[in-house]
Structure formats: C-alpha cells, structure tokens
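Propose amino acids for all 90 sites.
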C-alpha cells in the first residue's frame, strides 16, 4: 500500500529535525583552539563546531545558489551585462 504524501512529508520533516552525531579527527592545534573559543564563549565545543558548520555551509550554499542564478541569467540573456551581487548594492 502506498503511503499518503502528507504522512511521508511529516516523516521526512521529523527525520530532518533529528540530530546526528558527527565524529571527526582534528589536529591538536585546532582542538586547542576550539576548546579555547568554546570556553571564551561559554559554550560547549560541540555547539561551537555546529555553529561554525551551519554558518559556513549556510553562507557557502547561498553564494553557490546566487552564482548559479547569475550564470543561468547570463546564459539566457548573453547580451546583458551581469548584475552586481545583492550584497554589493547600496
């Protein structure tokens, strides 16, 4: 029997909210830096790493999406000059 699309979407959303554990090896110097930064901020190392990853990938992914949109726009309209990125406009 095929599951209802709404049920599947709800299950997918619940899976997305579940946190996963990520294990990684880091150089001793980075470990010390992370621990120092976490202590300074009053956070756990895990929270610092999570925030760095979320910020990095959020910013990076946004830049990739914008670059892809600009590239597609140039492909569709080759005679027009490229538009400036939104962050550079005043």
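Proposal:
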């Amino acid at each position: 029997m095929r599951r209802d699309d709404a049920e599947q979407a709800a299950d997918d959303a619940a899976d997305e909210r579940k946190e996963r554990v990520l294990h990684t090896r880091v150089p001793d110097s980075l470990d010390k830096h992370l621990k120092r930064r976490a202590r300074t901020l009053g956070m756990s190392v895990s929270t610092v790493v999570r925030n760095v990853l979320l910020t990095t990938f959020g910013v990076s992914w946004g830049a990739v999406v914008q670059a892809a949109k600009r590239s597609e726009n140039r492909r569709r309209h080759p005679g027009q000059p490229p538009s400036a990125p939104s962050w550079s406009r005043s």
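The chain has a mean pLDDT of 78. Residues 45-76 form the longest helix (32 residues).
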